[in-house]
Structures are given as C-alpha cells and as structure tokens.
Amino acid sequence: MLLDTAAARVGPVDADAVVLANRRLSADYHVLALAAPEVAARTQPGQFVMLKPSRGLDPLLRRPFSVFEILRDAAGAPTGISILGKIVGAGTALLYALDAGERISVLGPLGRPFTEAPADQPVWFVAGGVGLAPFATMAEACLARGLQPTLFYGARRAADLHYADWFRGRGVDVRLATEDGSAGARGFVTAPLGDALAALAPGSAPSIYVCGPTPMMRAVAELAARHGHDAEVSLEQTMGCGMGGCYSCVVPVIQPGRAPHFVRSCLAGPTFKASTLAWEGLAH
After folding, report:
1. Phi-psi sector, 207: left (phi>0), alpha (psi -120 to 50), beta
2. Strand-pair partners of 209
3. CATH class given for the domain over 114-236
4. With the C-alpha atoms ordered 153, 159, 160, 164, is the resulting torsion angle positive or negative?
5. HSE, side-chain direction, 13 A CA sphere, residue 93
6. Domain ranges, ordered by start, for the chain
7. Residue 143 CB neighbours (<10 A)
8. Which segments of 101-158 does DSSP mark as H helices, in order?
9. Using CA atoms, how far apart are residues 266 and 269, in angstroms rounded to an integer?
10. What kind and span of H or E run contains 95?
11. What is the Rg, in whole angstroms, of the alpha carbon atoms belonging to the chain?
C-alpha cells in the first residue's frame, strides 16, 4: 500500500540492516529480505535503495535496487524490505551469497515514486526479467485501493519467470511471454501487451507502468504511443551514490525546440513519463 507521504518526505535512512533471509530462486536470481523498519516505513512504490554488499572496499560503491516487498509483522507494521536481485557482476554476486544474520548497509528510500493510478481506468504493469521488482509494492498499493491491475511479464524462458504466482495469489491478472515459448505467449512481452491495447474499449486510457531492459522499455513506450497512450517507466541506470552527487546516472529528457537536457535519474526519477525521454540517448 502507499505509505504516509509525510514520512516519505523525512528523507532517506542509512541503516545497518540484518539479513533476515536470502531465498535463492535460481542459479542467479534471489530475494534478499532485510530488517530495515525505518526504510520500510518511508518507502513508496517505485522507490529504490542503495546496498553495500561488503564491509571492505571491493566493491567500493553501493548498488541500486528497487524495493521489492515491504515486510510487515502480524499487526501490519513495516519491519523491513526485500529486493529481487540477479547476479550480473561482483557486487551482485556478493549479495547473492549473503546468509541470514549477516549485516549490510542500506540507504533509502531514494528517488521519485510512481504516480498514483486513476481509479477509473485499467492499471497495467509491464515487466522484463528483474524489472519485476518495483511492481510488488505497486500491486499492493493498487489492490488496497480496490484496483485490479494486470501484469504483463516477459523473460527469455520459463525458468526466468519468478513470483508470477505471488501476484496471481493477490488477485493480479498475470499474462506471460517467453522468447522460447516455454511459458505464455511466444516472443517478447510486447506481444500480449499489443493484444490488450488492440482490445481496449473506446475511451479507455490505461495507466501503463514499465520496468526492464532499456530496449524493452523503449519498445513498450513506442507501442503504447502508437495506440495513443503514454507510459511511466522505471529506469535501471548505473548509479554511484543514489543522491545526485556523482552524476553517473544522467538521462536525456526532451525540451521542445531545443536539444535534450540531462537530468539525474536518482533525483528526477527513476520513474519518468516515457514521452519525456530522449530514448536514442539512453545507454542500453
């Protein structure tokens, strides 16, 4: 659910978090649960945290991750967060290897959250691979308001689709696509999304939220635009600090009649209206 916005305005917390559990979903995907109640209490859907996977200097910098779940106790009070991770390098491999009881540094929440969806139109999430991460909190926020979101979820193969049943169990309509055809539609996630866009009733304007590889997000944005709709994307930029100091995460945004202007994704985003981005200038 959406958390108290006054609490969110207090700012990020730099917490020394205990690893509650580290569930390995496959040889490279995992869900890391962290005891970080102050971070959890401030987090809104679409925000992220910076994690330092070790106490030493290797790696030197923290790594950005969308908040996956808000963990709660039996009374509903926030007790921590989880992140959905995938091994892509040395830092993410260290996170994958963590065991319960270890401690890591968590800075967050950071960034601009997703825009709240209108109550009278369809709500669609479009996720590619680990881009599923920001949609667990967003789904719970929508469901708490009585909305029934649809998740379009794609990956290379069925083995890379994780947590689909988690969403189904909460009432989300899940539509899958795999490049090898091993689950759902064969092809990219734009295939079931395109079918849904074509089937929309006249006057319907879905709220479309997207996260995944940059080429996939651009393809979704262009598909939505051809049907007269915008999308809100959560960019997965490389970040050194997460607080605007290092300028490592700049992205180009459109200025009518002028050259694109660069903004820091960690401050102006990570969520952006797709129509505001100069996609040809985004790193893949």
Report:
1. beta
2. 125, 232
3. alpha beta
4. positive
5. 5
6. 5-110, 114-236, 237-284
7. 16
8. 135-144
9. 5
10. helix 90-97
11. 18
Token pair for 235: 């960019």
Residue count (the chain): 284
pTM: 0.93
Homologous superfamily assigned to 5-110:
Translation factors (2.40.30.10)
Q: Residue 157: helix, strand or coil by DSSP?
A: coil
227 sits in the region (left: phi over 0; alpha: psi -120 to 50; else beta) called alpha
Tokens 């490279």 belong to 28
Q: How far apart are CA 277 and CA 17, in angstroms?
A: 35
Rounded CA-CA distance 21/40 in Å is 16
Q: In whole angstroms, what is the distance from residue 82 CA to residue 66 CA?
A: 9
For 5-48, the pLDDT digits (tens) are 444 446 899 999 999 999 999 999 999 999 999 999 999 999 99
Smallest CA-to-CA distance from 153 within 132, 123, 182, 180 is with 132
Cα–Cα nearest to 201, from 126, 124, 122: 122
Model pLDDT for residues 90-146, shown as the tens digit of each residue: 889 999 999 999 999 999 999 999 999 999 999 999 999 999 999 999 999 999 999
Q: Which residue has the tokens 């969806």?
A: 117
